Amino acid sequence: MKVLDHLEEYLIALLMAAATLITFTAVVHRYMSGVDIPAIQDTLIKINMSWAQELTIYLFVWMAKFGAAYGVRSGIHVGVDVLVNRLEPKNQKIFVMISLLSGALFTGIVGTLGANFVWGMSQTDQTSSDLEVPMWIVYMAIPLGSYLMSFRFLQVAWHFLKSGELPKHDHAHVEGLDVEEAVDAASDHDANQKVTEKL
């Protein structure tokens, strides 16, 4: 599980970094091509970056599909649980399990439909317009991301069944930053500031 968790996180980060870098390079290329310096302008005009927008879109689609699975695992997805929270604990558990299993079923169905679509697409010669990549490779994000999301729903359901806990995302938490250390550092800074003002 740790290997899959890290692979998922690294893949999302890699896709996001690649999309950002390609977009930045394409924008700089576009504006630098308009600079009235003949040597630079001639060199940049020869570089074809018409593929950048298409690749960025595909990278963001893949990132969104795998990011959705990460959201299920880490509890980031928004949920409306006002009615569920008003139920008795026993009934709450039943409704939470129904919703998790429904999520697993739905994403499993989407993954299967996506796999059938990709299989049909792989039997054709259809390619993307700029990159000329086979379109079935682009659409592989649907079954892979959906099946991973379905697996994450089942994983959360199993954990909830055993422990009664759902993953919760703390929006105030910053990775690598300890809250107590941050509070101590802030109070030390305030104390130093007061001493400096008195001097």
From TrEMBL:
Keywords: Cell inner membrane, Cell membrane, Membrane, Transmembrane, Transmembrane helix, Transport
Residue ranges of the TM segments: 12-32, 55-73, 94-121, 133-154
Subcellular location(s) per record: Cell inner membrane
Keyword Cell inner membrane among UniProt keywords: yes
Membrane topology of this protein: Multi-pass membrane protein
Main location: membrane
InterPro entries listed in its UniProt record: DctQ (IPR055348), TRAP_DctQ (IPR007387)
Coiled coil: none
Domain called Tripartite ATP-independent periplasmic transporters DctQ component: residue spans: 20-160
Role noted for this protein: Part of the tripartite ATP-independent periplasmic (TRAP) transport system.
Binding partners and assembly: The complex comprises the extracytoplasmic solute receptor protein and the two transmembrane proteins.
Record-stated family: Belongs to the TRAP transporter small permease family.
Name the UniProt record assigns to this protein: TRAP transporter small permease protein
